[in-house]
Amino acid sequence: xxxxxxxxxxxxxxxxxxxxxxxxxxxxxxxxxxxxxxxxxxxxxxxxxxxxxxxxxxxxxxxxxxxxxxxxxxxxxxxxxxxxxxxxxxxxxxxxxxxxxxxxxxxxxxxxxxxxxxxxxxxxxxxxxxxxxxxxxxxxxxxxxxxxxxxxxxxxxxxxxxxxxxxxxxxxxxxxxxxxxxxxxxxxxxxxxxxxxxxxxxxxxxxxxxxxxxxxxxxxxxxxxxxxxxxxxxxxxxxxxxxxxxxxxxxxxxxxxxxxxxxxxxxxxxxxxxxxxxxxxxxxxxxxxxxxxxxxx
Length: 297
Ligand code: CLF
Ligand code: SF4
Known about the structure:
By secondary structure, this protein is an alpha/beta fold. It is 36% helix and 16% strand. The longest helix has 21 residues. The structure holds FE(8)-S(7) cluster (CLF) and iron/sulfur cluster.
């Protein structure tokens, strides 16, 4: 699967369970939930739960301080030698919490230099963060891009929070889209690998995602992960309450197939929790709650 890639890219992906389908059988990732705030609103989000741009909605992760996060990474690394990647993916948007996210990355790059750092974002604050991401040797960034069309964007994002103001509708969506695309270009120019996540929302962006895939590939994204919307009414999201349906497995697969002519598609995403620990699809988070880690010390 990796043999056609240049060696520097093989080095970056071969131990990363999300970027390499092969690697996910052998290598584990963990997330630390250090980032509570968010700077946009998605119609598939309920702020009480984890950010559904990357993670599973409807679960609440234990929020950690950067210091607790570092303790947790060290404890997991000591117990799970296959753990190669540390990601920050919520419970809000990591880049909307720059102090917490970057102080975690700073401490980890000093204390656990062998662990790769990974981050997932909605992209609004990405352009201003690229410099700092590069400084911490972050090779893997995920941007959730659900559309490149502000009219469609207005049906997904009711508002963004930008320059201390709430901006609604098409105007807000347009700024978000511009920031995502600019961030993508800035990252790929620096050789940072970008995965694009898209949430497939039937009747809203499903037909349009083939174009998204084509455009992000053109701009140098490495991988595209089309994930199904999970809209359960009991999660209390706008879509859930409005009766927006989730895609059927077959619809998702057809769309992934339709995108795959142009793009490397990720097909093994497990929509992890913002505090997931272990191999993809396996969650050992319960073994590493903060009270258990304090006992281990
Ligand atoms: Fe985490 Fe995401 Fe990094 Fe992976 S998860 S921040 S890229 S280390 Fe992976 Fe989980 Fe899917 Fe994310 S399976 S939800 S794609
Ligand atoms: Fe919720 Fe994540 Fe969207 Fe923010 S980016 S509103 S946390 S789903």
